[in-house]
Amino acid sequence: MISFFDWSVIAILLIFSLGIGLYFSKQSSGQGTVGYFAAGRNLPWWAIGLSNTATYQSGAGGFVMLILTFGLVGNWIWWASWIIWMPLVAIIWAPMWRRMKISTTAELITLRYGGKKALVARKSYAFISCFGFAVLLIGYITGFFVKTLAPIIELSEIQVLIVLGGIAVIYTMFGGLTGVVYVDVMQFFFLLAGSFLFLFFAMDQAGGLHTVVEKVTAIRPDALKIVPPSESFGIPLLLILLLQGFFFAGSPTAGEGSTAQRFMAAKSEKEAMKGQLFNTFLALSLRTIPLIGIGIICMSLFITRDMAGGMGQVPAGMTVLDDPVHAWGSLINWTNMPNGLRGFLIAIEVAAYLSTLSTLINWGSSFVVNDLLPKKMLKTKKQQIRISRLSTLLLFIGSGFVAVLFVENMVSWFVFINSAMVVFLLPLSWFRFFWWRFNGWGELAAIILGLPLSVLVWFVMDYQDKSMWQGLAILFGLSFLVLILITLLTPPEDKRQLKIFYDRCKPIGWWGPVHDRLGAKEVPKSRNLLINSVLGIGTSLGLVLFTNALFAGETLVLILGIILTLGLGFLLIRSLQHKSVNFTDK
User: Fold this and answer.
1) Inter-residue contact 539 to 88 (CB < 8 Å)
2) How many CB atoms lie within 10 A of CB 311?
3) What would the pLDDT profile of 154-206 be if each residue is shown by its tens digit?
4) Which of 195-209, 248-262, 286-300, 386-400 is least confident?
5) 520 vs 110, 154, 493, 501, 524, CA distance in Å?
6) Of 541, 573, 576, which is closest to residue 560 (Cα–Cα)?
7) Average pLDDT of 231-259?
């Protein structure tokens, strides 16, 4: 039962969130859209890191669901890509996003390409990001939130959207990105403290780590395997996810989107890079540690109906769950807790939901104001802020319909949102920045075809029920083939437009013709860029090995993870502090 004291704890979190968001309303509205959607380009690195990690959380139930369904290797469904894209975004992309001095990722398109096609591509990208990606993501996290809390509190999507969504909309409408970020920072500490407290009480009552591990091993011998392959996670899937990782910098749910929005709002290029490196540590390891422990406890207590059917009979002492997303809430019901802690745990799930929701509605509405509406509607700062707030509200209302009507299978949606939905767009992260010949027609093709093809392959052709790697490989291969063919069959961009982009962005890669023919300004590039990227990926690999081995009793892997993290991390920091690393806004 949820006591009055539990409800009071939840209410305190909501009041805090609302108060912090409203506190920044004057600051966010004083600089027009730059203040509202880019925080006046004044965010420090620690706020970027903490807020991005809080946004990625969206709910503890998702991590627990993956572990219960796939065992510890289930973490690699997201880790395999993240250990690559997160450090690469920090080292390569974060400084570029900041130095372009733009407000949305769609604005990049008219900076990079010229002509009417660039304007069409920008508006198309803005429309799809806002009413496609942002709306789908909000619908998904709302459906997930409702299902996660279902064992504890029976709520409908409509109730969640009206009460919790209403609070998020209010502080997002008035606080803008600054309010969203600093509410996220507060909520991150709620999330971390609550997860560790939950782990402490649940592990103690389950008999301790040794007892839990023994029980899980007896029931599911392969469940505590740390790295793929396993029965549920084959080599083809691992390879396609690792490949994706090199391109996830162009994903609206990863290196682009709300992540890039915070880079654009950073105080400097260096602050953007430091924020993403901090985010990498927090997201890959620190926030995940207690959730892995909670997931292992769930494996010792619960099995899904599908697992029970495969075993023939339910092991003694195990409870069968109709849906793996119910595991987190079911464990809360199972654990005997002090008065108020149950409310605090519900509050951390509320915090995760609010953090992601507020970020998405601010990010989505930024496209409406910056890229879709005619400039004549935004002549004064007061008009800009009024329309920004209205678009925030309307985007949220539209997302509510998706949450109520369409979001069902949580495991399938988790994979779709984190991988399949964005696969067709991923090559853009390299083509735009590193290949001068890539043109606006290729960009337009990716934007128009990306989301519809993802829905077609995943849901209509039903690849959600086949080996996951097959659907991802089809989309990834199609993307490369289509984008390269369209680019080579259409004229290149005007060299003067390319020079404007090159001078502003300072990209690396194949830009020789632009530099040689037009004398574009050369900014010294770090001679250690490739080395830094390798060090970053190696450090991230060490983090996830250490994190997964922490509860599995794999001492050698644990030590290897610590050595990789500390050794390569030290070399990376030392290399990034070298004078050969150049920032244009020093």
Assistant:
1) no
2) 13
3) 777 788 878 888 888 888 888 889 999 999 999 999 899 999 999 999 999 99
4) 386-400
5) 19, 61, 15, 10, 13
6) 541
7) 85
What is the DSSP secondary-structure string of 160-209?
A: HIIIIIHHHHHHHHHHHHHHHHHHHHHHHHHHHHHHHHHHHHHHHHTT-H
Cis peptide before 229 (omega within 30 of 0): yes
The two tokens of residue 248 are: 């996830």
Query: Is residue 364 a contact partner of residue 135, using CB atoms and an 8 Å limit?
Result: yes
pLDDT in the model for residue 313: 77
Give CA–CA dist 115/5, Å, rounded.
Answer: 61
The amino acid present at 391, given as its one-letter code, is S
End-to-end CA distance of the chain, in Å?
56
Q: Across 87-101, 341-355, 512-526, which has the greatest mean pLDDT?
A: 87-101
Residue 93 and residue 269: Cα distance in Å, rounded? 10
Distance CA 493, CA 112 (A): 9
- Mean pLDDT on 372-378: 80
What's residue 328's pLDDT?
94
Name the CA dihedral angle for 355, 360, 362, 366, rounded to a multiple of 10 degrees.
160
pLDDT of residue 413: 59
Q: Is the pLDDT of residue 226 over 80?
A: yes
Q: How many CB atoms neighbour CB 224 within 10 A?
A: 21
Q: Yes or no: say if 94 and 270 are a contact pair by the CB < 8 Å rule.
A: no
Q: Tens of pLDDT along 24-57? A: 887 776 667 888 888 889 999 999 999 999 988 7
Q: In the numeric block, which tokens belong to residue 251?
A: 């994903």
Helix H or strand E segment including 210: helix 209-219
| Secondary structure of residue 100 in the 3-state scheme | coil
Task: State the pairing for strand pair 319-321/302-304.
Answer: parallel
Say how far residue 27 (Cα) sits from the centre of its chain. Answer: 27
**Model's pTM, two decimal places?**
0.91
In tens, the pLDDT along 100-152 reads 999 899 999 999 999 999 999 999 999 888 877 787 778 777 877 888 888 88
In a 10 Å sphere around its CB, with 0-12 CB exposed, 13-18 middle and 19+ buried, how is residue 308 labelled?
middle
Instruction: Let me know how long the chain is.
Output: 586
- 577: burial class by Cβ within 10 Å (0-12, 13-18, 19+)? exposed
Contact 85, 254 (CB under 8 A): yes
**What gap in Å lies between CA 421 and CA 253, rounded to an integer?**
9
b vs e for 485-508, b when ≥16 Cβ sit within 10 Å of the residue's Cβ?
A: ebbeeeeebeeebbbebbebbbbe
Place of tokens 């002090």: 338
Segments in 406-505 forming alpha helices (H): 410-418, 428-434, 440-455, 468-489, 495-505
Q: Which structural domains are found in the chain, ordered by start?
A: 4-246+253-408 (1.20.1730.10)
Distance from the Cα of residue 497 to its chain's centroid: 32
Residue 299 · residue 68 · CB < 8 Å: yes
Q: What are residue 320's DSSP bridge partners?
A: 303
Measured CA to CA, the distance from residue 217 to residue 563 in angstroms comes to: 27
- In sequence order, what are the beta bridge partners of 319? 302
